[in-house]
Amino acid sequence: MSNQASNPTNAYTVPSVSIATARTGASSKANELGMRAMQERAYAKRGEQYLLIKSPPASGKSRALMFIALDKLNNQGLQQAIVVVPERSIGGSFADEPLSQYGFYWDWHVAPQWNLCNAPGGDEPRAAKSKVDAVRQFLASSDKALVCTHATFRFAVEELGIAAFDNRLIAIDEFHHVSSNPDNVLGSQLGAFIARDKVHLVAMTGSYFRGDSEAVLGPADESKFETVTYTYYEQLNGYQWLKSLDIGYFFYTGPYVDAVTKVLDPALKTIVHIPNVNARESLKDKQREVDEIMHGLGEWKGVDPSTGFHLVTTKDGRTLKVADLVDDSTPAVRARVLEALKDPAHKDDRDHVDVIIALGMAKEGFDWIWCEHALTIGYRSSLTEIVQIIGRATRDAKGKERSRFTNLIAEPTAEQSAVTEAVNDMLKAISASLLMEQVLAPRYEFTPKNAGAQEGFVYNDGEGYKEGGVNVGVNEATGQYHVEINGLVKPETPEATRICKEDLNEVVTSFLQDKTALERGLFDKENTLPEELTQLRMGKIVRERYPDLSETDQEAIRQHAIAAMNITQQAKLALAQADASGGTTVQGSTALLDGVRKFVNVRDLDIDLIDRINPFDAAYAVLAKAMDEKSLRQVQAAIAAKKVSIPEEEARDLSKRALQFKNERGRLPDINSADAWEKRMAEGVSAFARYRAQAKAAQAQGGNANG
Question: Residue 97, SS3?
Fold first, then answer.
């Protein structure tokens, strides 16, 4: 009991971010060709040779591909289409579709022998070799479509060569599985296809980040792709039923099975992802963990013989059906449970199952539209994996109005020998949560002050654009906000303009995965100036990501990325403060927009003001509420102790900023200035001078020694 007294999180849940939308129904409305909004947008780009479709799980990517592929086969002179999926279970998404029934010109058809995902044998090399023969036969045939796994395709390209696929469409589903790492065979093969330039490529991903730290394509290859982006915000905004998504991380002490009942609501349709057996949170006995979770739900009453689901009676007398995907001791039983979950007869039956407990399954491509709560225990190393898990709970289903993702994380405690490891896991979980907020927020269109009204935006609640005033424009159709910022640098080249429009989340991802930025911004606020994060750390990340762009373009991208992040976080903070002071909780489509307005209207936004905001302020406000104060102080002390003198690279960056300061003010920064950032730049200049003097001395010494 002492645990609960000292750690409030085991007793109650902390506020989580909530994204609320308008439910316009647009995502699911079809046009006269039978296409939903995302598919229509992708089809408009069907003439592109290289196309990258980024859109959330369940937005209809597989059907979008069918439309594009059929046009390429019938109107663009391509011979065949090859669809490549990461695992056999996803192959079903590309089965025959009678598209003409819904108004399209042709039907999608894959002859049974060419759906290699259904062919016997897995993806191990021996079985895959026989599938390579099937690919060879297909290429020689007059048939039009083939579906296979990433592994089969890799083997086929290795054996048949790049040229064998000339004049064909290659479509790669779940593209984030590929990377530009030389060890990633599929990534290298794609590079070779692009170099030969004789195929059309369509790449599709439900993740907004390439891999997790490695790019899928090199920058030169990537710039050849035309991107179609359909955001989470647009998708949720266009749903018919689901109107809000909550994201929360909660800390616990002791074994997680004791804390899980605090966040596992038996009334919600839930997928519980228990930790990997090697994870710190695991109790190293997965079956015991499942039993304890079920025990927390109620009293076990046996197993339904037809489905294999466990029957558990709750305190209020309801019987829950629980699917256990963790127990793999009897393959026949697990197969029965999987079969029952996938039974098409029950696809629309909300009461078919109540809780699914999984370990490593039920993520990508797993379709249970009724899921309202994705509860994940322990930190997940991959942001892509988190997006996929959240995607399980963001399907639209009749009567389902709210959905939530909860991450339960072990709180670092003074008694733990592995405090550092615990802190790292916590930082990564917070980073993932912040990133999801960014992905789910509307997209921003930033312009310098007084750039005038932009097409498609409604300004100031319909009052119109005010010259010289504070303007916030909304484009309901695309879910974009237009925000004006004084002193904003505009990108000069088409590539930098594309990055500012399409890829800000990629930049924010790199920033949020920068451990130094997270540690300093969250736990060493007293000794860290916001500009060290917004200008130095973010500036360094942009330069490393886009080394070939000019300094002006790099600065434009840095400003756009930090503005997108800080405006979302400040909007969230404004909402939380309004809520705490007894204001009405904003629900519905205007929630985040109201926060943006609150933040923008109070001040005339300029880039210096945005650079002076710590991007982690809002997250810290949640942390301070959620964590035991003793643990929080201990983490802060551990991080503050790591502060070292200014490293050389940082000193160089500070000197560059000081030079900019000198150009603007006509003098160098003063080390005795009352302004902390000016003082920091001056410290950087003197530190950099010391580094240069040391290097010169070492060089001179080396020269004397040689003489």
Answer: strand
In one-letter notation, the amino acid at residue 468 is: G
- Cβ distance 297 to 266 under 8 Å? yes
Q: Which of 126-132's residues contact partners 24+ apart within 8 Å by CB, and which partners?
A: 128/152, 128/155, 129/155, 131/155, 131/156, 132/156, 132/159, 132/160
**Element containing residue 406 per DSSP (H, E):** strand 402-410
CA dist 222 and 215 (Å) reads: 9
- Beta strand ranges found along 253-318 (DSSP E): 270-273, 299-303, 310-313
127: left (phi over 0), alpha (psi -120 to 50) or beta: alpha
CA separation for the pair 354, 377 (Å, rounded): 19
Two structure tokens written together for 501: 């429009």
Mean pLDDT value of segment 562-566: 91
Average pLDDT over residues 35-51: 87
Helix (H), strand (E), coil (C) string for 620-668: HHHHHHHCCHHHHHHHHHHHHCCCCCCCHHHHHHHHHHHHHHHHHHCCC
Distance of CA 398 to the CA centre of its chain: 26
Check if the beta carbon of residue 465 is closer than 8 Å to that of residue 459: yes
Side chain identity at residue 42, one-letter code: A
Per-residue DSSP letter, 535: I
* pLDDT tens-digit map of 361-414: 655 556 788 888 888 888 776 666 777 777 777 777 788 878 888 888 877 765
Query: Which of 269-278, 651-660, 676-685 shows the highest mean pLDDT?
Result: 651-660
Cα angle value 554/558/564 (rounded, 5°): 145
Residue 218 · residue 180 · CB < 8 Å = yes
What values do phi and psi take at 196, rounded to 5?
-75, -30
Using alpha carbons only, give the angle 535, 538, 539 rounded to the nearest 5 degrees: 65
Q: Helix (H) and strand (E) counts for the chain? A: 25, 19
176 in Cβ contact with 211 (< 8 Å): yes
Q: Please tell me the distance from the alpha carbon of residue 410 to that of residue 402, in angstroms, as a whole number.
A: 26
